[in-house]
């Protein structure tokens, strides 16, 4: 066996050992299905013992590292599959449809999710060499990159701190900072760094997204959104779709439907009332669009979700 081959085999074995330890620690700290908050702020552990149905949800800016199993996310009409070889980065708020596609009680789907700290991204970006500018058609706010040993090592050191709460207060911020650095220095880190370009295209799209989040119940014209983003309507339409795979108004529609579902699922609000509260004037239009996104009329879909113990979180 050549030296090069020996090094490749050793690296592969090392990564497998890292994932095995990560899996063991996640299972101990996340003993059942669901999203588990941790003593480390910004870190969540996710576990699923069985594959799931496609579930519409809103992804917040975060880094997701799959340790075991597989999941896929649909954004617009684009499908992203992530597994232990790839991590997912969401740089802006995005409505999506997620689905765990590989999981079993013996080998559950296990994932680490870290909230992206924009302040840390900005600070680290200022210290890194200039990145290749993100092309207008290459600025998707969700992307997959290959997981390497250095990122796994940093993740493992962070998760070990869950068993050492006395050390976590001091060392966890350092580990989180290193994880942000590894992502920024990675193959597609320029997309995340683009968020820190003051008044760059990514920042302008992010401002449009914040407006839509804050005023999703209102009837907004594209001209209003473009003014906040400091873009012409046509440029906003192009850049927004490049980042989110949706137009601004499609994005707003998904936010409305997601919020209506939460009202019905978590608060027991009737469909017509939920539709009105999120900005729909026509109950029939709401029902049609809800069925198109969630696959069933509001009442039936919510009843099925309750039976399965699911929500859009």
TrEMBL record:
Molecular function (Gene Ontology), one example: DNA-binding transcription factor activity
Family annotation (InterPro entries): Homeodomain-like_sf, HTH_AraC, Tscrpt_reg_HTH_AraC_N
Residue ranges constituting the HTH araC/xylS-type domain according to the UniProt record: 206-304
S-adenosyl-L-methionine among keywords: no
Record flagged with keyword Transcription regulation: yes
Pfam family, one: AraC_N
PROSITE patterns: HTH_ARAC_FAMILY_2 (PS01124)
Keywords: Transcription, Transcription regulation
Protein name: AraC family transcriptional regulator
């Amino acid at each position: 066996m050549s030296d090069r081959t020996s090094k490749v085999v050793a690296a592969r074995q090392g990564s497998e050992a890292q994932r095995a330890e990560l899996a063991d620690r996640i299972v101990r700290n996340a003993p059942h299905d669901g999203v588990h908050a941790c003593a480390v702020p910004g870190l969540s552990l996710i576990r699923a013992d069985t594959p799931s149905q496609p579930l519409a949800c809103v992804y917040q800016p975060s880094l997701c590292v799959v340790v075991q199993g597989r999941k896929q996310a649909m954004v617009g009409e684009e499908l992203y599959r992530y597994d232990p070889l790839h991590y997912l980065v969401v740089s802006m708020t995005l409505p999506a449809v997620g689905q765990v596609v590989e999981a079993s009680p013996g080998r559950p789907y296990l994932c680490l999710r870290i909230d992206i700290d924009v302040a840390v991204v900005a600070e680290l970006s200022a210290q890194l060499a200039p990145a290749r500018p993100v092309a207008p058609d290459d600025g998707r706010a969700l992307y997959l990159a290959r997981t390497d040993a250095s990122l796994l090592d940093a993740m493992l050191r962070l998760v070990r701190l869950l068993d050492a709460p006395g050390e976590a207060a001091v060392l966890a911020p350092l580990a989180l900072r290193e994880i942000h650095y590894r992502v920024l220095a990675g193959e597609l880190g320029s997309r995340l760094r683009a968020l820190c370009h003051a008044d760059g295209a990514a920042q302008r799209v992010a401002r449009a997204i914040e407006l839509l989040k804050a005023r999703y119940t209102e009837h907004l014209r594209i001209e209003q959104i473009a003014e906040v983003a400091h873009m012409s309507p046509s440029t906003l339409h192009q850049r927004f779709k490049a980042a989110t795979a949706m137009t601004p108004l499609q994005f707003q529609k998904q936010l409305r439907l997601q919020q209506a579902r939460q009202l019905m699922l978590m608060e027991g609000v009737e469909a017509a009332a939920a539709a009105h509260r999120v900005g729909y004037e026509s109950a029939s239009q709401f029902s049609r669009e809800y069925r198109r996104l969630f696959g069933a009329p509001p009442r039936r879909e919510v009843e099925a979700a309750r039976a399965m113990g699911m929500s859009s979180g």
